[in-house]
Design brief:
3 helices, mainly alpha, about 130 residues
Length: about 130
C-alpha cells in the first residue's frame, strides 16, 4: 500500500532525480566527447604520417618530371612549369579539404537524443 507523500517530499524527490539525471547526461557527454577525440587523434596521426611520406614521394616524382621535361626545354622553365602545376593541384586539394571540414558534424548526437528523451519524460510526469 502506497502512503501519500507531502508536496515538499515530492519536490525534494523530484529535485534529487533531476540532479541525478543531469549528472548522468554529463557523464554520457564526457564519454561521447572522449571517444570522438580518441578516434580523431588516431586518424590525425595517420594523416600526418601519410602526408610526410607522400610529400617526399611527390617531391621526387616532380623532380623526375622536371628532369624529363628538361630534354625539351631549359631546366629552369621545366622546373617552373612543374611547380606551377603542383601548386594548382595543391590549391585544389586544400579547397576540397576545407569544404569537407565545413560539412562535418562535431555535435554529440547520443547526448542530444538522451536529453530530448529526458525532457519528454519530465514533461509527461509533470502534466
Amino acid at each position: 500500500m502506497q502512503t501519500e507523500r507531502s508536496i515538499p517530499e515530492l519536490t525534494k524527490d523530484m529535485a534529487f532525480h533531476l540532479g541525478d539525471m543531469f549528472r548522468n547526461e554529463l557523464k554520457l557527454a564526457r564519454v561521447e566527447a572522449t571517444e570522438g577525440v580518441k578516434s580523431f587523434s588516431g586518424a590525425f596521426g595517420q594523416l600526418v604520417a601519410g602526408a610526410v611520406m607522400g610529400s617526399s614521394a611527390l617531391t621526387l616524382g616532380l623532380m623526375a618530371v622536371a628532369y624529363g621535361l628538361s630534354e625539351f626545354m631549359p631546366m629552369w622553365s621545366a622546373a617552373g612549369l612543374v611547380a606551377l602545376v603542383a601548386a594548382l593541384a595543391a590549391w585544389m586539394f586544400v579547397k576540397a579539404g576545407q569544404k569537407a571540414m565545413v560539412n562535418k558534424d562535431l555535435s554529440l548526437p547520443r547526448t542530444r537524443e538522451q536529453v530530448s528523451r529526458d525532457i519528454e519524460a519530465i514533461s509527461e510526469h509533470v502534466h
